[in-house]
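User: Reviewer 2 asked us to show a designed sequence for the structure in our supplementary figure. I'm pasting the structure tokens here. Could you produce the per-position amino acids so we can include them in the response letter?
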């Protein structure tokens, strides 16, 4: 069983499941949360192009949301309690 499916089946691990799914390209949670970011960047790009042609100041570009950044490892991702619940429910 792959982790997202296992997390989905355990109520206590729904936070982990949602976090994994929101970082998984192609999933609805990923698209739903990334679409507004893309829209904000497109609006900023249009303003940046206009500012480039004038003397207008440019505000900083929107930041890529931290919750969209792929996991770089599992250190600190799961609490000891969450892992114990998962192990107990999968036995």
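Assistant: Here is a per-position design you can include in the supplement:
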């Amino acid at each position: 069983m792959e982790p997202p499916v296992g997390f989905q089946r355990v109520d206590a691990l729904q936070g982990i499941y949602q976090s994994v799914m929101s970082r998984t390209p192609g999933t609805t949670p990923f698209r739903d949360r990334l679409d507004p970011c893309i829209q904000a960047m497109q609006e900023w790009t249009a303003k940046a192009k206009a500012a480039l042609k004038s003397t207008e100041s440019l505000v900083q570009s929107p930041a890529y949301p931290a919750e969209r950044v792929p996991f770089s490892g599992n250190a600190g991702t799961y609490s000891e309690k969450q892992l114990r619940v998962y192990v107990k429910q999968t036995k």
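For the response letter, you might also mention the following. The chain is about 55% helix and 0% strand. Residues 1-43+76-91 form one domain.
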